[in-house]
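Trehalose-6-phosphate synthase: structure, please.
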Amino acid sequence: MSRLIVVSNRVAKSDGANKGSEGGLAVGVMAAMEKDGGVWFGWSGKIDNRNEAPKTETRGNIEYVTINLRQSEYNQYYKGYANSVLWPLFHQRPELMRYSDTDLSGYLQANQKFADELLKIIQPGDTIWIHDYHLIPLGKMLRDAGIKNPIGFFLHTPFPSLDLLRTVPGYHKILKGLMHYDLVGFQTQFDHMGFCMGIAQGLGGEILKNDKLRVGNLHCTARVYPISVETSALNGAAQGGMQTDEYRRLHSSLGDRSLIIGVDRLDYSKGLVQRFQAYDKLLGHYQEFMRKVVYLQISPTSRGDVQAYGDLAKRIDREAGHIIGTYADFDWMPLRYLNRGFRRRTILAMYNLARVGLVTPLKDGMNLVAKEYVAAQNPEDPGVLVLSELAGAADELDAAVVINPYDVSAITGGLAKALNMPLDERIDRWRKMMDVLEAHDIHAWQSQFLGDLKQVTGPKLVTSSS
Ligand code: G6P
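Here you go.
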């Protein structure tokens, strides 16, 4: 029997429990796996210092195998090296990096724990697909243990240029770690280029034909696979969400005001400070929008025990307080800022209701909110996407109102343009974006990656010194 084994730090919760705070990886991989099924291995989300055996649970055609993390593993691997070194580095914020050797060794130990558990379940014929920055060394660990199966890796985040990458001690191990995969997938050409240049200049490797790379006796293929959404299903799901009590209450609370919506984990990569400042400017400079708009920002708390996230939460609270204190009236609240998530279908229905989808990350691998916002629109009266040019999604969704997320005035201008846009232009822009999403949905993403993995897999050279 040949199975797909997907490995990621975070696995999707069951649909009912999904409150929209899981991020793009869980949403994307879930949609991709639902069709053909497989095994999904990852962290349970629980911290437990007893060494319990992995838990297996089958939902639909996916078998979830999850392990707990010990407190020290959570601190050093998840909170430490993954989210206080790799995440800020990959999102171009080296000043937020907090590097320590202890965290790096905890990161490697946690990867070894994943490897040890996976070795118990991998069978000949299985295809292994590892996801994201938490698990870069895992491929080599599996190879060292003698696994010969095809192993692919997909990075959901951006990948930095060598110049930035080398700010982290031991950066060459990150590059070399990726060389142990048969196929490495990136979101954009920029990310792919950063990796190839890193291999060539940082490791003295060679860039060969057909996207192949070589470093000593290690070979891998690296290509671009922009992740997408379940395009055809999202409009129907949005219709379903319209039956919910939350949607009805939101709808009736708006009256004839236009809704601007933002949905992001509370993360410094999402550009929330600049976004709030831009909204402040919109209300301050454009009198015509006073009392006519409502901005709903849904931002579930994320990685709250990492200091940079705690600091951000306080900063956003201040910005929100300033907007409300300055512009609100006893019968109009210009901003609704929520630190909790909602079920996906409710969120999709909210996207459908919103005249503007505001997606302004300072840096983002792809940003599936942008794609979901487009796919959830009503074709006869679609809303407008205001999109950061620094989100991977901007490469494909160039019919959005594209802005530089560091330029507060440009976001304000983009918002005004979106709110004033005539129907024919809205339909025209939306159609162009939908064409892209219909031609390349999440199933195309999965089958392209797995099809290529099958094609490129050949005998893998493994050395103990690499
Ligand atoms: C991003 C990352 C994912 C991560 C998600 C949520 O989308 O690429 O790997 O799972 O954020 O973050 P969390 O730390 O809660 O898993």
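Notes: The two ends are 32 Å apart (CA to CA).
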